[in-house]
Task: structure prediction
Amino acid sequence: MSKLSLIIKREFVAKVRNKSFIVMTFLSPLLFVGIAVFVGYLSTMKADLKTIAVHDQSGKFFSEFKSDEEYKYVDFSSINLQVLKDSIVSEAYEGLLVIPKEDDSVSFQKGIQYISNDSPSVMFISDIEEVINHKLTQENFQKAGLDTLAIKKAKSDVSIHLTKATGEEALKGLNEIKIGIGGAFGYLIMMFIVIYGNMVMRSVIEEKVSRIIEVIISSVKPFQLMMGKIIGTSLAGILQFLIWAFLGLFAMFVLSTFFNVQMGATSGMEDQAMQMAKQEMGGTMQLYIAELWNLPIATILISFIFYFIGGYFLYSSFYASIGAAVDNETDSQQFLLPIIMPLILGVYIGFFTVINDPHGTVATVFSMIPLTSPIVMMMRIPFGVPLWQIAVSLIILFATFFLVVWFAAKIYRVGILMYGKKPTWKELYKWLKY
Amino acid sequence: MIFEIDVEFCNLKNMSNILEVKNVVKQYGDYTALNEVSLTVPKGSIYGLLGPNGAGKTSLIRIINQITMPDSGEIILDGEKLNPSHVSTIGYMPEERGLYKTMKVGEQCLYLAQLKGLSKAEAKRELEYWFDRLEIQGWWNKKMQELSKGMAQKVQFVVTVLHKPKLLILDEPFSGFDPVNANLIKDEIIELNRKGTSVIFSTHRMESVEEMCDHIALIHKSNKLIEGKLSDVKKQFRTNDYEVGILTENIEGLMYDLSQKFTLSQTDFKSLHDELKLQINIGTSTPNELLNLLIQRGQVTHFMEKIPSVNDIFIQTVSDK
Result:
């Protein structure tokens, strides 16, 4: 067996056998699902019922307010306004809505007040405004002698129909889906880089701390050791991701089987309306699914593999040389920040720029810069990127990768034999010339 | 002048040396770690590489192990220019040593032996031999972190010699060992040497050098100052001082006569008599001239040349420069 494959094997086995790896692999999906369920549960929890006192001097509006699960409206029009205000201060009610007598429209509009201790939500206020406006508009129509029914009919409700230049039918919200898919891949690359890059760094530090490093590099070249470490760790990471994907598929399979059984049990009770609704839903869903199939899936997957390899190797050589330069993890912080920054920048550009203008200058430039290209380009690809751009971006990425590995290997070679010094950037630069 | 000797003789010479270092220079930035250092390590020798901390010993050893490259100069190992295949002919125990803490002893040794080029089966066979020999069979499945420091050192030694290296390079080999284990390892090193392994010791513990080495070299401030057979080096550093014990009636007379010819000083050594004890520097005279004089004046109980210890040579050389 060649030395490189021996190193890869050892790194892989060391990672996979590590207790924290096993725990992380099987616990984090549980944790993930747990958090999702918890958040879902929280969002379904009903808010507390709030009682709103309404002092409607005009007597026309109270009947328009419909109590629901969140807000209950109580008519206190007959009670003295000052008493009501005092009761608000003593927190007997959430708020007090005061509607004055309708003398003239200007002073009336100024006279409407909402009094409360806590500032109300924007939604609540706009709801109230809408109710009052609706009522007033209706009245105004009547006063002017307009036929409200005719007006209702005359109103149009346009929903723009989207069609691509190629003549295919386009769907709304597709951009969101595209950025979602690209973002998922980009985010995956970023997470992998951060998690496993750190692992590479820690494993380098471990060899320094345990002082085995000199024993090993008397047998193998530092470059072999570094590459073996990076590859071995990434294989462990890929295994972890595969296990997660498998667990995810398995969970989906179990859930859908379970769900189908339930559906079957209740199918007898399904009425026609529900079936109709389902069919209609199915219709649009089919369109969406067809549209998803139209995405450049092969390009996405193939470029994912390349960007994944290029990006991960590029960054983990940074991580490896940082690990070699420092004696312990705390010292690594100052060097890590410049590495994390472009990753975060990539994600931000992806979600803010690419979604609005996937082929604009900013998105295109950052999908060429090697430090951000794995993330930004992955987000652009679902929108359709010319192949030559992908090719150029990949060439730049891999060229940079080879350059960085060369530099990283130099720093690594010197760094692993340096003890007790807290290196500075200047020092690292000096090591390049050794 | 060595370079002018004819080529055939040179080749012959090469074959009897396990290692030749020729004019090696190594610089780190502005700092010169090795300045035109040349060494010759004969086959089958135990070679002591001496020098104070920071002299350049470790830099030289790292170059021999191909961990770093010399800026200029040449290394010849067993008649061949140093190349990557030599990794398997050298066993190296660095001063800064350790093993993977969370890895099991057996697996770890197998891994490191395979990195040195052994097949898995070979490595296993050798490992069983050494574990038997050092009586550590029970450790195979233990993790390194469960072992004490002395135990770990034993494993480290096994790792170093497992692949039957022709040249063993040991940097401060006895640091961290208790006296019992240090002795055990020393005996193993001598046994390996008897079977033909050449050994380079890098140390500043002079007593082990005195005891084991037949050749030494002294490096100080990046330069080699002394090199050669231990006995030759000692001859070179002899001071012509003799320790003399004599029983005589007329001490003053003897002292007067001696001081006419030699330089005298008081000294002390263990003896059975209450004699006059002197250290006498004979200068250019022969020992017999001194002895003749002494015999005429009394009963000589002690007559010995003061041989410089490696420690003396070390300190003298280092403080001269």
Q: What stands out?
A: Residues 51 and 219 of chain B are 5 Å apart (CA to CA). Confidence is low (pLDDT under 50) at residues 1-14 of chain B. The first strand of chain B starts at residue 17 and ends at 28.
